[in-house]
Design brief:
By secondary structure, this protein is an alpha+beta fold. It is built from eight helices and 22 strands. Bound molecules: fe (ii) ion.
């Protein structure tokens, strides 16, 4: 895709997918244009959206996005329809009144595993965006992995498992505490998660979300998601996608209440075969892309096509985020 205002740049850490560069990296076509910014995105919005639907990930570097307000202005200019962050599990703060939040603020030494945003819920966003306000001193890259490539990889390792996931779907099980446990990466209480005070109100929300639940000692609750798709179809490329929260749950839902390897069940009730899935994760590690953040970088992801993760980091790191739904 050609645009007249942006030009493509390459990076040693860049990967490739079926559409070409992954992520596609854009810089201003005219490096001397000091007024580069929102109006350039407005002018090229449809072309940029098309590139995003094909490549799954676009990184904009040096494109005049210098604040949370600029970031919000660009998302408005390109007409991405805002989606409020309700029901997610991560600790966040609101930055602008409307669309911009901090990215997951969990401790720096923890890696956040690969996931599609809110894919353990019935209504995940179609897009997620990141903006680098403060780059970390060391580490802290946002990792991206194309889920079309992920599905093909799993199929090459165990075609039967890939088919089972596609045909049966998955359920996610998680035990939530009554009070938030800051010592756990998935320790958000049911009160905070569902934004309620009483068990009766929590039950109403869980009912609405199609979940099943069981109250445990100490007012902890064991929740089971409805049966959700694990493999979906990308109409743009005609390929299948590994669009789910299976990797995050399997590798990351570990604390005193939960065991990741038991957090995901196929529709039949079977757990994932650990050895096969570990092999898949090891192979996937060679295919992911990490491009270190620079101040003013903006990353757009099609959440239906691309997983993201966060590497551990040192020093200050401030990444802002927003989510959107397809506005057709
Ligand atoms: Fe995320």
């Amino acid at each position: 895709m050609m645009t007249t205002l942006f030009k493509e740049e390459s990076h040693a850490a860049q990967g490739r997918n079926g559409a070409g560069a992954f992520p596609k990296i854009y810089v201003p076509n005219d490096a001397a244009d000091v007024g580069f910014g929102v109006e350039h995105f407005l002018a090229q919005g449809p072309a940029l959206k098309l590139a995003l639907r094909q490549h799954g990930a676009l990184l904009f570097r040096g494109c005049g996005v210098n604040s949370a307000d600029d970031f919000e202005g660009v998302l408005d200019a390109v007409s991405f329809e805002n989606m409020p962050y309700v029901g997610g599990a991560a600790p966040r703060r609101q930055i602008t009144h409307r669309r911009i939040m901090t990215a997951n603020e969990s401790p720096p030494d923890e890696k956040i595993p690969l996931h599609h945003e809110m894919a353990q819920t019935s209504h995940p966003p179609d897009y997620i965006f990141f903006y680098c306000d403060t780059a970390p001193t060391l580490g802290g890259a946002t990792t991206v992995f194309d889920s079309r490539e992920a599905f093909d990889l799993l199929k090459s390792i165990d075609a039967a498992l890939a088919t089972q996931l596609e045909v049966e779907g998955v359920r996610y099980t998680r035990v939530m505490p009554a009070e938030t446990d800051p010592g756990s990466p998935i320790g958000r209480s049911w009160r905070e998660t569902f934004q309620v005070e009483t068990k009766a109100d929590a039950e109403r929300v869980m009912q609405d979300q199609g979940m099943r639940w069981q109250w445990l000692a100490g007012d902890e609750v064991r929740t089971e998601s409805p049966l959700l798709p694990a493999v979906r179809h990308d109409p743009v490329s005609g390929r299948k996608t590994f669009f789910n929260s299976v990797i995050a749950a399997f590798t990351g839902w570990n604390d005193t209440r939960n065991v990741g390897h038991r957090a995901v069940q196929l529709g039949s009730g079977a757990y994932l075969p650990s050895a096969v899935f570990e092999q898949f994760l090891a192979s996937a590690a060679a295919l992911v892309v990490n491009i270190p953040w620079q101040i003013g970088d903006m990353l757009w992801l099609d959440n239906r096509l691309v997983m993201h993760a966060r590497q551990p980091f040192e020093g200050p790191r401030q990444i802002y985020t927003a989510i959107a739904i397809e506005s057709e």
